[in-house]
Design brief:
Distance between the termini: 46 Å
Strand content: 5-15%
Oligomer: single chain
Order of helices and strands: HEEHHEHEEEEEEEEEEHEHEE
Radius of gyration: 27 Å
Helix content: 10-25%
Number of helices: 6
Length: about 375
């Protein structure tokens, strides 16, 4: 009786395997030529197919340079497939393991199930592009800092609360995106990434920056929007290559005057902070955005308490309670010099072409290779 019940299951499994083999044999699964490279896109149900390809077409996989799998696979199956990658795909240069392709009934994007990576991935000595966006990472996998040739690392939309000091070992890194995570602090070793050109730390919980950030000598774009920053280190004025600095939607009450002397700065976004004044050099710069700040709003004098008037010329002490209870004064019309011109689009990533994903963050894939699906 049990054999009779198991027979339909065996037939279904055999039919599924046959369908997968047909897809592998055609181009649906598939090995796509990109110049002299091979790109393996196994986005849907890819782990099972990758394991089968490793067993049946191992010589062909030796030429693969781009691999895309879905972050929504069963974690055990995904781990088993990834464990085969270093040995079976030794020429791999780009690995995409994005989640975020599934939505619930309310239309909310569901994160992928990826929480770690096998240590064996550190054997991918040629890997230059790693996309782990829209997953469930809470800590950075230990294998990542050992990827000495890594140039682009995308970690957006995960659950990272910190980055390890070992991140500073990625001396070839030019692009790092950690937007939409839970970062509360940055490692001091971040300043050792001397090749870094683009850094996106927006939508986190940062309330301070280490002065070591000023050591990013190649940095061209820095996005710190939507954090909890109240001040900035003076060392930012040492970022001589900086072209774009985005700081909107923080709690900044001041900015370093040295930012005005950055020779290549073309966009400085300070909207929606708590700035009551800015250095004159910045106020007059055409590339600065200052909307949504209480610029020029003087604190109104509190009403005089009952009793004899104060002696002429005697300074009056304003207590905190008095300041807090004072209504805000009228906002003066914005100065034309404080209104920025239209923002230019982000600079092209060295891994262009770039595409927008469904949640609005940047993703990229190497030139000549298939772009990551969203």
């Amino acid at each position: 009786m049990a054999a009779v019940e198991e027979e339909p299951e065996r037939r279904a499994a055999a039919a599924e395997d046959a369908a997968d083999e047909d897809a592998d044999a055609g181009s649906g699964a598939s090995l796509l030529p990109a110049g002299n490279r091979l790109s393996l896109d196994l986005h849907s149900g890819g782990c099972r197919r990758l394991l089968r390809l490793c067993a049946r077409h191992a010589p062909l996989l030796l030429r693969v340079e781009f691999l895309q799998l879905s972050g929504h696979e069963d974690p055990r199956l995904l781990g088993a497939a990834l464990a085969q990658v270093p040995r079976s795909l030794p020429q791999l240069r780009s690995l995409v393991l994005k989640g975020g392709q599934h939505w619930d009934a309310l239309g909310t994007c569901r994160p992928g199930s990826l929480t770690t990576l096998p240590a064996s991935l550190s054997g991918l000595t040629r890997l230059a592009h790693l996309d782990l966006s829209f997953n469930s990472l809470e800590t950075l996998p230990a294998c990542i800092p050992r990827l000495g040739r890594l140039a682009a690392l995308l970690l957006s939309h995960n659950r990272l609360s910190e980055l390890p000091e070992a991140l500073g070992a990625l001396s070839a890194l030019t692009f790092l995106s950690v937007t939409h995570n839970c970062l509360r602090a940055l490692p001091l070793a971040l300043g050792a990434l001397s090749a870094l050109q683009r850094l996106d730390l927006s939508e986190n919980r940062l309330d301070t920056l280490p002065p070591e950030v000023g050591g990013l000598s190649s940095l061209q774009e820095l996005n710190l929007a939507s954090n909890r920053l109240q001040s900035l280190p003076a060392s930012l004025a040492g970022l001589r290559s900086l072209q774009i600095l985005v700081l909107h939607s923080n709690l900044l009450v001041s900015v370093p005057a040295g930012l005005a002397r950055l020779p290549l700065l073309a966009r400085l976004d300070l909207r929606d902070n708590q700035l009551q004044e800015v250095p004159p050099e910045l106020l007059d710069a055409p590339f600065v955005r200052l909307q949504g700040n209480p610029l020029g709003e003087a604190l109104p004098a509190p009403p005089s308490p009952p009793g004899p008037p104060a002696a002429p010329g005697m300074p009056r002490l304003l207590l905190t309670s008095e300041l807090d209870s004072s209504p805000p004064g009228p906002r003066p019309p914005p100065s034309p010099s404080a209104t920025a011109c239209g923002c230019r689009s982000p600079a092209s990533c060295p891994w262009a072409p770039m595409t927008r994903c469904s949640a609005g963050s940047w993703s990229c894939s190497p030139t000549g290779w298939p772009s990551s699906r969203t």
